[in-house]
Amino acid sequence: MKKTLAFLLSLGLTVSMLAGCGSKTNETTAATDAQTESAAGTEKSTADDDAAATTTSDKTYKIGVLQYVQHDALDASNEGFFAALDDLGIKYDADQQNAAGEASSCQTISETLVNDGDDLIFTIATPAAQSVAGATSDIPILLTAVTDPAESGLVESNDAPGGNVTGTSDMTPVKEQIDLLKKLIPDAKTVGVLYCSAESNSVLQADMAKEACKAAGLEAADYTVSSSNEIQTVVESMIGKVDVIYAPTDNMIAAGMATVAMIANENKIPIICGEEGMVKEGGLATYGINYYKLGYKTGEMAAKILTEGADPASMPIEYLSTEECSLLINKETADTLGIDVSSYDADSLYTAE
Hints:
Layout: H1 2-58, E1 60-67, H2 72-87, E2 91-98, H3 103-115, E3 120-124, H4 126-133, E4 141-146, E5 165-169, H5 174-184, E6 190-196, H6 200-215, E7 219-225, H7 231-236, E8 244-247, H8 251-255, H9 257-266, E9 271-273, H10 276-280, E10 285-288, H11 291-308, E11 326-330, H12 331-337, E12 349-350
Parallel strand pairs: 1-2, 1-3, 3-4, 4-5, 6-7, 6-8, 8-9, 11-12
Antiparallel strand pairs: 10-11
């Protein structure tokens, strides 16, 4: 009896031990399976992330471009914009359109770009930006070469655009340009401010210039055009009435700068310009922004919208700082006018090749 009981107890203990071992084995197997599944899940997640990254980097974006008119400054903005995208490795198909300064063409091109379903539309100069903004409130719009987007009705405010439009301003250092005028032509007393009255940003700059002239003890008067056909007549009307011409970053005047410079230089009237391209076309000098850099900055903003999902509504209008502006003097024009610029650094002097 005692032997039988001992045997049964021994058998029960063995069974219990075996049962315990079996439970541990099951737990280990379950843990191993869980780890395997977790590893597989991690690999799948990583693969998905890699696939997403590959999809983003391999995507080719459709970018519509509307440039208001062709001249050096706007061309440089266009070039700088796409240089930024190239440097950032962004692939794109660009539909380049130029309105040749015609408002009706702006409207037609705007509608076409919107109907094409572009991922982003890049607009160069105020009329182009206004036209595209009036055609879509959904497609992101990046503008450049617009002096004051808020004043032009393109954004709610320059600090908080609030819609689908943002970009860069070509606000120039007007006061510093008038200071340059005083330095280069110290005997000047009267300034003719030449601009297109139909361009709101030109009106803004003209008002700033007249205020700066007043502060500098200069008399200033408006000489405005409403079409390119009026440029020659208006400039000729300035002869004998002004000592110097100030031309802001006005698209119509910039496009017709060769005519302005021809008449002014023949009559010994210096021209202080809003930007470098106008100096290269025969103006005397500028202390102004670099439109290539401005376009490049706009391209960097485009990259954030296209690849990072940035919202134009919360992207403030960006500017080039005064430190990023540069002095440029047309040496040939200075010689024609009898103005000594020998004291200026050679890097600041422009000589046509």
